[in-house]
Amino acid sequence: MNEASASKTANDGHGSWLTYRPEIKVLDCTIRDGGLMNAHRFTDEVVKAVYETCVAAGVDYLELGYKNSKEQFPKANFGPWKHCDEEDLRRIVGDNKTDLKLSAIADAEKCDYQKDILPADQSVLDMIRVATYIHQIPVALEMIHDAHEKGYETTVNVMAVSTVQENDLEEGLEILAQSPVGTIYLVDSFGSFYSEEVRDLTKQYLAACAATGKEVGIHTHNNQQLAYANTIEAVVQGANFLDATMAGLGRGAGNCPLELLIGFLKNPKYRLRPILDCVESHIMPLRRNMHWGFDLSYMLTGLLNQHPRAAMSYLDTPESERPSIVKFYDEVMEA
Q1: What are phi and psi of 326, to 5 degrees?
Q2: Residue-level pLDDT at 8
Q3: 172: buried, middle or exposed (CB in 10 Å: 19+, 13-18, 0-12)?
């Protein structure tokens, strides 16, 4: 196998089991998405271990958290990865003299991006990812332009797309494709998609991006135990930016497990052993106080295409006081 054959594979949107697409980039969002389960209060030891593991494993990007407003989200109520201030970032990564690129995500209408996102030459961050709902696209466009002008790579993550009407999505993708953003992400926020839906949506995103040469990314949740399968489906169709987390650590049912994804990808730059070591030594011990991954309550919200907040509240209730799963089912069916 050589670069030419690998690139040909990428250009036709499909691959074989014996080749790889060098265009594929893997983004680890363990700390960012996992932070939604512990108010972003990871120890420096855990964050540094994830950082060093991503370097050792050849991962392309590491997302350390949010650039959220300190007025809307006071620092006293959260750990440092809710805001990703420069001193906190550099305490972990120094000047990051590695090939690993660093990112943070900024929510539309929840970020004071003009002042809180520094020019790229003053920050250790390389990429700003803008998260937006479809009705927030005008704000997201301003954020994309701001980050682009400051010198960052950019993505836009269109959230809860499973609830968006087809015409609105088509128009939204057309607008975003004309912006300076580098990658447009398909996001299965509620873990409700099946592979056929991911296939068709990935094709739609690719078609919208074709004229402007933008990449398509995929971010999945595991409510129906399909996060990994749906990520692979997007890869097969031609998505090149792939989100994953160690041991699937993430909000609610969690995300596509990084160890599964790296085990699947054939690019020899990726190494599985460091990830296994980090999962065993640093991520799995978090289960003593953090509860993520497949659960019947998350399954039900995924089946019903609902935000997992009801399931998260259900699981936060002490087990002795928690209603039966059948009662929870009846409640969410009536919601």
Answers
A1: -65, -40
A2: 40
A3: buried
**What is d(CA 50, CA 282) in angstroms, rounded to the nearest whole number?**
8
Kindly report the CATH number that applies to the domain delimited by 3-288. 3.20.20.70
Q: Where are the domains of the chain?
A: 3-288, 296-334
b/e for 302-323, b at 16 or more Cβ within 10 A? Answer: beeebebebbbebbeeeeeeee
pLDDT digits (tens, 9 = 90+) for 129-161: 999 999 999 999 999 999 999 999 999 999 999
Are the C-beta atoms of residues 313 and 322 closer than 8 Å to each other? no
Q: Between 19 and 192, whose confidence is greater?
A: 192
Which of 85, 80, 82, 90 minimizes the C-alpha distance to 124? 90
* 33-39-45 Cα angle (round to 5): 75
Side chain identity at residue 51, one-letter code: Y
CA distance 187 to 218: 6
Quick one: 169 exposed, middle or buried, by C-beta within 10 A (0-12, 13-18, 19+)? middle
Residue 1: pLDDT band (50, 70, 90) is very low
